[in-house]
Structure formats: C-alpha cells, structure tokens
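During the first year of the project, the team set up a workflow for recording each protein of interest as an amino acid sequence followed immediately by a discrete structure-token representation. This format lets reviewers and collaborators read both layers of information side by side without switching files. As required by the reporting guidelines, we include two representative entries from the current panel. The first entry is reproduced here exactly as it appears in our internal archive.
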Amino acid sequence: MTQRDRFEAVYDAYYPAIHQYAARRTSSPDDTADIISETFLTAWRRIGDVPEGDRALLWLYGVARRVLANQRRSATRRAVLVDRLRDELAAGRPVTPVDLEHVQTAFDALPGRDREVLALACWEGLTSEEIAEVVGCTRIAARSRLHRARKRLAALLERRPSSTIAMGEA
C-alpha cells in the first residue's frame, strides 16, 4: 500500500468523524472546513506517524484538537490587535467641528471621482503628479480633474458664504 493509498483510506474512514468533531466546536462552516483541511493536511504530511486501525481516529482527534486551539489563539490575537488598532485610530482621528457639517454634506454630494481626487489632494497631501500615478492618468488630466472637483465643491459651498476652505496644491 502506497502512502497515498494509506492516506485515502484514513480520509475515507474518518472524515465524517472529524467533520462532526470540528462542526460541534466551531461557529461557522468556514471554520469547520479550516479545521478539517488542516487536520488532514497534517495527516498527509505525517502519514507515517498515523497509527493503524481505530487508533488513527484518536490520533486525528488529537491533531484536530491542536488545530482548533491554534485557530482560537489566532482569533484571540487578531481581536486584540483589532481593538488596539481601533483605539489608536480613534485617538488619532481629528474631531470634526459641528459647524463644518455642511462641508461634509457638500463633499458627499460630489461624484465619487471628484471626492477621490479632492481626498488625495487635501487629506493625503498629494500633488497632481502623485494623484495621476494613484488614479492611473496623466499629470495634466489629474490636474484638470482636481481643478474641476474644486470648482464643483466651491459651487456647493456657495450656499454658505461664511465658509472658507483652503484647498491649495502642494
């Protein structure tokens, strides 16, 4: 019997049991599939270590248990990192004054293409040449798009004459 034949025999015999083991311990079909695939990948790599007979199932349960523990540790680490990143981003986010809500409303009313070039110029501080590289056009086209976007935003803001917004280009 070749290693492949041995693996296929183990897989065919014990897949249902490992599937049930994983399904009862996970909250999503994707997580279940991950546990099963990692368990049988380990069995494939270490087919020489898989015991004969019914002891193979116990060995597979042990592998699945360790895979599940690794998955849970990874999820915990990921959650901690997400929380830390969320806190860092919240701390660094500038507070928008209430009297500038009209600017956000005007900005949101612009077409997506205008919002993108304005955001790249104003928020990211990019030049026309850099914007051109990001959006995939010529420098002249980027400069033209930026000019038109500024004009459209200014027209929307004219409804509120007291607002002055610096949109200069570097």
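The second entry, processed by the same pipeline in the following quarter, appears below.
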Amino acid sequence: MSPHIILRVVSKLLIPMIVIFGFYVQFHGDFGPGGGFQAGVIIAVAVILYALIFGIDEAKKAVPPKVVLWGSAAGVLLYAAVGLATLVMPFAGEAVNFLDYDALHPDQSHHAGQHYGILLVELGVLITVISVMLAIFYAFAGRVPDIPDEEW
C-alpha cells in the first residue's frame, strides 16, 4: 500500500475540477473578471499539482515538453494572427486598426466580430500562459541540485 494513497485519490478528484474551473474562467472572461491569463495559470496549476503528486516524469508524459514548446509559440501566433486578420479584412471601405474586432464579422451592427475576436485572442493568451508556466516549472523541477540532500 502506497503511503500517499490519500493524496493520490484526492488529487485525482481535484485536478479535473481545477481544469473545469479554469475553462469556466476562460469562457466567462467576456462577461466578467477572468480571461486567458487567469485561466492559463489555473490550468497550469492543475498540471503542476499532478507533477507534485505523481512525479515530474509522469507529468512530462501527460504534457510533453515538446507540446509546451510548440504551445508557447502557437498562442502568440494565434494572438498576432487575429490582429493581422483585422488589418486585412475589409471594413466597409474604412481604414481599420490592429485588433479592431468589428472587421471579423460582416454585420458590424451587432458587434459579433467583437465576440469572435475576444474569444480568439483570449484563447491565444490561454495557450501561451499554460505553456510558459509549464516550461518554467519543468525547468526548475528538472534541475539537478548542486548539493545532495544528505549534505543539507
């Protein structure tokens, strides 16, 4: 019997709830406090908790460092792509600004482009924050200590 059986069972119950709460914060960010940054930190904390309970190697199997590396670039590219798309899409013959979301939908009277733009930008922020937080954690957790534990 493992000495940490209670921690393992409780964490298996908590981690999915933490991720669901992170997605709630992500998608509720349009209407209240929250958004990509907060949700990204919450979801990254779920992976970090998994690593603390089950080990860094198991966490790297669940979310490989290669995925973290590509995710950090993909989130920034998604954010920039939304901004560039607003520049190149026609907006009733008028000049548009970077991240002027109304250009993303042909019917500007209902401001549907605002919702699409905010969701896409916040998704880019979410992917970037999760990836960067995990990259920082993997860098520090995978470090070999200079002094062995016995010498402390």
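For the second entry, the following points were noted during internal review. The CA atoms of residues 40 and 130 lie 5 Å apart. Helices lie at 5-28, 36-54, 56-62, 65-88, 112-141. Both points are flagged for discussion at the upcoming steering committee meeting.
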